[in-house]
Specification:
The complex is a heterodimer of chains A (about 230) and B (about 425). With about 230 residues, chain A is an alpha/beta fold. Chain A has nine helices and ten strands. Chain B starts with a helix and ends with a helix. Chain B has two domains: about 190 residues, no CATH class; about 130 residues, no CATH class. Chain B has 14 helices and 13 strands. Chain B is of the alpha+beta class and about 425 residues long.
C-alpha cells in the first residue's frame, strides 16, 4: 500500500476573475522509503503540491490518502497529531528561532507533541548527536553557520521519528560544499532509517540523486520518472 | 503542548523583545500603581471609620425620634403650624430644626413595640461654662455614653457609672487652656461646672476629672465632657429646678436597645414597626453608612481614573502583541505545520499578554504599597497628626489580589485580538511570509 496516494487533486485560490488554479488534476502514489524530487519552475505548483501532501493545505477537489486513510476525514486535534507524528520539515529559510538555543529549536516538535522535559532533552540530544551538533546544543541558533543551521533544521525534522521528511529547497541557501553535505545527510536518513524523503527543488543535480522525479508544469504532472522507467 | 510548557514558552517569549515589553509593562505599572493607591486610600479611611464605630455607638442601639410632619427652621419651605410638643432638635441637622418631644407616654409606647429591649431617653443638658480653680471659663457641651460605647482615652479611665461621687472625662483640647498642664497631671483634679436653672439662677457643681479623652474624627461627644451617671443626674436635676413636674420629662430623642444578635432584616423590621407607631429609628450603621457612601464615592471616582490609565495601557498591549505576531508569523506557521492547534496558539499569545499584565501589576502594586506606607506614615506624623489612629493609605490582601487579577484580566482581553489573529493565520501563508 502506498504511504501517500493522491487522486485527481485540484487546488485553486481566489474567486471569479482572480481565480488561480495552482493544481489542475494531479494523481500519484508515493511508496514507503522512496526518495522523490518534485521539480518545476517557480509558479508551476510544486510548492502547492508539497503543501497538499504535507496536509498543510486541503485540496479543492480530489482526495489525498495517507496510509489508506482519506485525509479529508482528519480534523482538528487528529489532523494536528497526524502532522506532528508523521512529518518532518526542512525549509530553505531554516525557520529557526534565533534567540533560542539549538536544543530548544530542535525539541519544538516534541514540545508541541506534549513530551515530558527529560524525554525532550534525551531525544533532542540524540538527534543532535546524529548530526554531529551535540557540542552546539547550548549555542544560540543565530550564531550558527548556514550549514550548521540546516543541520539543526534536519535534527528538528528528525527528532520526532517521522515517516516522511519534506525538504523545500534544502540546499537553496547553502554553498555547494555545504549543500552536498546536507544532501548526503538527507539521503543517508532515507537509506538507513527508511524515512520517505520528498524534496521540492529546481536543482537538477539534487533531483537526479533521488529515486524518482516528478516534473510539474502549470499545475499538471507532466513527467514521472517512475512511469517512464516502468 | 502541555499547559506548563505553554506557560513557560509564553513567559520566555515575553522577554524576547525586551525594550518593547518593558515599555508596555511601564504603561500597565502606572495604572496598577494608581489603582493600588486609590483603593488603599479607601481601605485606610474606611478602616479608620470602622475602628471608631464602637466609639460612635454600640451595635445594638438605635436613636429614636418622633416623626415630624413638617420641617422647621432653615429647612422649612413655608409657615409651619404651631406644635406645642416641638422642642429643639438634639440631632445633627439644619439650624432651627425642631423635633416633636418624646413624653413618658411615648417611651411606654416604644418600650411596648416588639423587639425593643429597653428605652433610655437622652437628656439634653446645656451647662454655661467649665472652669478649673480661678482659670478661664470655657463653654462646653455634655455628651453621654450608652452601653457598648467607648471613648478613646489619652489618660485616666472612663467615668464610673456606679460611683456616687461626681466624675467626668475632659476632652484633651480643654486641658491646657484651662491651666491643668499635661493630660496625666489633670487626672484627679477638680473642675467647676456652672449651669442655669429654669428660674435663671446659676448653680456651680464641682466634679473630679477621671479621664482625658482623645480627639478623633468620629469622637462620640466632640468637644464635650462625659459625665458619670451621678454627675449627669446632678446636672439634669439642677437644670430643671423650677420646671413644672409634667414638663421635666420631655426628651428630644431616646436610645432604643434591641437584641445584640439581631440581623439586618430584623433591624429594618424593627424600624418599620417604629415607623408604623409614628417614630423614626436610625442605627449607628445608618449614620456611618452616609460617611462611607461619601468616601466610597470619592474612591470610586479616583479608581475610575486609574482604570482609564489601565485602558490606555491595554492598547499598548494590543500594539505590542500585534507587532509580536507580525514578527513571529513564520514561527507561528512552523508551529502549526508541526501540529500545534489553533487553540494552543491562541493560548500562547493570550498568556503572554496576561504575563505582561501580571508583571506590570505586580511591580505597580509592590511599589504603590511602599510609597503608600511611606506617605501615610509621613502624613500621620505631620499633616494628620490630629487624627490619631488614622492610616491614610492601608492595604488589604483581598483588594491587592483583586487588583492584580483585574489587571491580568484586562491584559488578557487586550491580548485576545492579536492572539486571535495568530490563531487564524494559515500555516502555508505564514511560511511564505517574508
Amino acid at each position: 500500500m502506498p504511504i501517500i496516494s493522491v487522486r485527481d487533486v485540484h487546488k485553486s485560490y481566489g474567486r471569479g476573475q482572480n481565480r488561480f488554479d495552482a493544481l489542475k488534476g494531479v494523481s500519484l502514489d508515493i511508496h514507503k522509503g522512496e526518495s522523490i524530487a518534485i521539480v518545476g519552475k517557480s509558479g508551476s505548483g510544486k510548492s502547492t503540491l508539497m503543501h497538499v501532501l504535507a496536509l498543510l493545505d486541503a485540496p479543492s477537489t480530489g482526495t489525498v490518502e495517507l496510509e489508506g486513510v482519506d485525509t479529508a476525514t482528519l480534523r482538528g486535534g487528529k489532523l494536528n497529531r497526524t502532522r506532528n507524528k508523521t512529518f518532518g520539515f526542512v525549509f530553505q529559510q531554516f525557520f529557526l528561532t534565533g534567540n533560542s538555543t539549538v536544543l530548544e529549536n530542535v525539541i519544538l516538535p516534541l514540545k508541541i507533541a506534549g513530551a515530558g522535559r527529560s524525554e525532550r532533552r534525551r531525544r533532542g540530544h540524540a538527534a543532535l548527536a546524529q548530526l554531529e551538533l551535540d557540542d552546539k546544543a547550548r549555542s544560540k541558533a543565530v550564531n550558527l553557520s548556514g550549514g550548521q543551521k540546516q543541520r539543526t533544521v534536519i535534527a528538528r525534522a528528525l527528532v520526532n521519528n517521522p515517516r516522511i521528511i519534506f525538504a523545500d529547497e534544502p540546499t537553496g541557501n547553502l554553498d555547494t560544499a555545504t549543500g552536498a553535505i546536507v544532501e548526503d545527510i538527507l539521503f543517508a536518513l532515507n537509506r538507513e532509517n527508511g524515512i520517505t524523503l520528498i524534496v521540492v527543488t529546481h536543482d537538477e543535480e539534487l533531483a537526479n540523486r533521488c529515486d524518482r522525479r516528478l516534473f510539474i508544469r502549470d499545475g499538471l504532472l507532466v513527467e514521472d520518472s517512475a512511469a517512464v522507467a516502468a | 503542548m502541555r499547559t506548563v510548557d505553554l506557560i513557560g514558552s509564553a513567559v520566555s517569549n515575553t522577554f524576547r523583545s525586551k525594550t518593547r515589553t518593558i515599555l508596555t509593562i511601564l504603561a500597565i505599572f502606572v495604572g496598577a500603581f494608581t489603582l493600588t493607591l486609590t483603593s488603599g486610600l479607601g481601605t485606610g479611611i474606611n478602616a479608620y471609620i470602622n475602628d471608631t464605630v464602637t466609639s460612635i455607638g454600640a451595635a445594638d442601639v438605635m436613636t429614636v425620634t418622633k416623626t415630624h410632619e413638617s420641617a422647621t427652621g432653615v429647612a422649612a419651605d413655608g409657615p409651619v403650624e404651631y406644635n406645642p410638643d416641638a422642642i429643639a432638635s438634639g440631632q445633627p441637622g439644619p439650624p432651627g430644626s425642631t423635633v416633636v418631644a418624646l413624653t413618658p407616654i411615648d417611651l411606654d409606647t416604644i418600650a411596648g413595640i416588639e423587639g425593643v429591649n429597653d428605652v433610655v431617653p437622652t437628656r439634653s443638658i446645656s451647662p454655661d461654662y467649665i472652669q478649673a480653680g480661678d482659670g478661664t471659663k470655657y463653654v462646653i457641651g455634655v455628651g453621654s455614653l450608652i452601653a457598648g460605647q467607648s471613648i478613646q482615652l489619652e489618660a485616666g479611665t472612663e467615668p464610673d457609672d456606679s460611683a456616687t461621687d461626681l466624675q467626668l472625662v475632659l476632652p484633651v483640647s480643654f486641658v491646657e487652656p484651662m491651666g491643668l498642664g499635661l493630660a496625666e497631671s489633670a487626672i484627679g483634679g477638680t473642675v467647676s461646672i456652672a449651669i442655669m436653672d429654669a428660674a435663671r439662677t446659676q448653680h456651680v457643681i464641682d466634679a473630679t476629672i477621671v479621664g482625658v479623652s482623645e480627639e478623633g474624627l468620629a469622637s462620640p461627644t466632640g468637644a464635650s465632657l462625659v459625665p458619670n451617671t451621678a454627675l449627669n443626674d446632678e446636672l439634669f436635676d439642677t437644670e430643671n429646678i423650677g420646671v413644672p413636674a409634667d414638663e421635666v420629662q420631655r426628651y428630644a430623642q431616646a436610645s432604643v436597645f434591641f437584641d445584640t444578635a439581631a440581623t439586618d432584616d430584623e433591624i429594618s423590621a424593627l424600624k418599620d414597626r417604629l415607623t408604623d407607631a409614628g417614630y423614626t429609628g436610625s442605627t449607628v450603621a445608618d449614620q456611618l453608612g452616609m460617611f462611607k457612601t461619601v468616601i466610597d464615592g470619592i474612591v470610586l471616582v479616583l479608581n475610575a481614573f486609574a482604570i482609564i490609565a489601565l485602558l490606555a495601557a491595554s492598547f499598548g498591549i494590543v500594539n505590542t502583541l500585534y507587532m509580536s505576531v507580525q514578527e513571529r508569523t513564520r514561527e507561528i506557521g512552523l508551529m502549526k505545520a508541526m501540529g500545534m492547534g489553533n487553540g494552543r496558539v491562541f493560548s500562547l499569545f493570550s498568556l503572554e499578554a496576561a504575563f505582561i499584565g501580571f508583571l506590570g501589576s505586580a511591580i505597580g502594586v509592590v511599589i504603590a504599597m511602599l510609597v503608600g506606607s511611606g506617605v501615610s506614615s509621613a502624613l500621620s506624623g505631620s499633616l494628620l497628626a490630629d487624627l490619631p489612629g488614622l492610616t491614610l493609605i492601608a492595604f488589604d490582601p483581598v483588594s491587592i489580589a483583586a487588583i492584580i487579577v483585574v489587571v491580568m484580566a484586562i491584559a488578557f482581553l487586550a491580548g485576545t485580538l492579536p492572539a486571535a489573529r495568530a490563531a487564524r493565520a494559515d500555516p502555508v501563508d505564514s511560511l511564505r511570509y517574508e
